[in-house]
Amino acid sequence: NLFKLFKNKEVPEFLVLLYCQTKNLKKTGTMCKDTIINWIIPFLSVGKRGFSSKFCLMKIITLIFKRLKTGCQWREIPIKEQFEEGEISWDTIYYYFNKWSKDGSFQRVWLNILEKNKSKLDLSCAQIDGSHSKTKGAESRGFQGRKAANTTNAIFLCDNQGQMLAMSPPMAGNHNDLYEIEKNLKAIFEFLEQADINTEGLFINADEGFDSQSVRDYLESKDIVANIKGNPRNGGERDNYFDEKLYERRFTIERANAWIDEQKALLVRYEKLDVNWVAMHLLAFSFFFLRKIKV
After folding, report:
1. CB distance 277 to 265 below 8 Å
2. How far is 114 from 289, CA to CA, in rounded Å?
3. What's the CA gap between 47 and 55, in Å, rounded?
4. For the whole prediction, is pTM greater than 0.90?
5. Kindly report the CA angle at 45 between 88 and 293, in degrees rounded to 5?
6. Among the four 55, 109, 159, 252, which has the fewest Cβ within 10 Å?
7. Helices 105-116 & 181-194 angle (0-180, nearest 10)
8. How far apart are CA 30 and CA 102, in angstroms?
9. pLDDT digits 0-9 by tens, 64-99
10. Which residue from 177, 184, 180, 169 is spatially nearest to 208, judged by alpha carbons?
């Protein structure tokens, strides 16, 4: 409540900071210290022999979130905000990020958050859409005419309130949303299964770019109701289910994509490796959901 008052400019900032320090919830720039300790650090991998890092992992995670939020270059991360001068270098921060991305640590973080808080999701319906990100010399890139640039494309799924849930593997931007669609949908729903989220009977909204019989058949095989807007290019009237009123909720994924773009490291893709780019998205999903449920 105090943070809401601060946001509405009803209390000065120094009172919020004093409250945080008193309750041991000192803000770490992007996420509270206790949130990082409780929801992120327990799921990060340790050394093969079980040795703990000599560096404070909470501070390292804070700097990774700082990079996610600001989009600064790794070498420009404000290390002095967390560590003494000369205590650690930027490439050590990147080493940990790269390590945790490749060994699935950030995936475990997001899966745990989803599983433990799935009751707080709004699955009255869900939205699916593809999104292109401009990229600079990364894997899975291709020229996309609409953006007149090399892009990476991925399929995203969010709940009825715009909370991102999962994403497909990245693909080159010269491919449309239907490229390898069954493989991509399978990856998305297998991820939800790992989080013990039941999708049977779920209504899914999708735009005309997903108007394909293969999409409808796959969703039907998962007992999911496809509410897909018909594509005029496919020609003719077809007897497919479509609820115009339900389809109006599709705006939530557009809003969700706008929230993701607030994280400047995702607005333009500079991460060369696909696995690192996906990890950045999972961290963004985690950040927004933890902030929403106020844990």
Report:
1. no
2. 9
3. 13
4. no
5. 95
6. 55
7. 60
8. 23
9. 999 999 999 999 999 999 999 889 999 999 999 999
10. 177
User: Which structure tokens are listed for 294?
Assistant: 């106020």
Contacts of 221 (CB under 8 A, 6+ apart): none
Residue type, 95: Y
Is the pLDDT score of 230 beyond 60? yes
One-character DSSP codes across 124-136: SSEEEEEEEEEES
Sequential DSSP letters for the chain: -HHHHHHTTSS-HHHHHHHHHHTT--B-SSSBHHHHHHHTGGGS---TT-PPPSS-HHHHHHHHHHHHHH---GGG--GGGTS-TTS--HHHHHHHHHHHHHTTHHHHHHHHHHHHTGGGS--SSEEEEEEEEEESS-SS-EEETTTTEEEEEEEEEE-TTS-EEEEPPPEETTS-TTTTHHHHHHHHHHHHHHTT---TT-EEEE-GGG--HHHHHHHHHTT-EEEEPPPGGG-S-------HHHHGGGHHHHHHHHHHHTSHHHHEE---SHHHHHHHHHHHHHHHHHHHHT-
Tokens of 6: 């601060």
Q: What is the number of residues in the chain?
A: 295
Tokens coding 44:
């990060």
pLDDT digits (tens, 9 = 90+) for 267-295: 999 999 999 999 999 999 999 999 999 87
Residue 184 has pLDDT above 60, yes or no: yes
Token pair of 271 as six digits: 């991460």
Tokens of 295: 């844990």
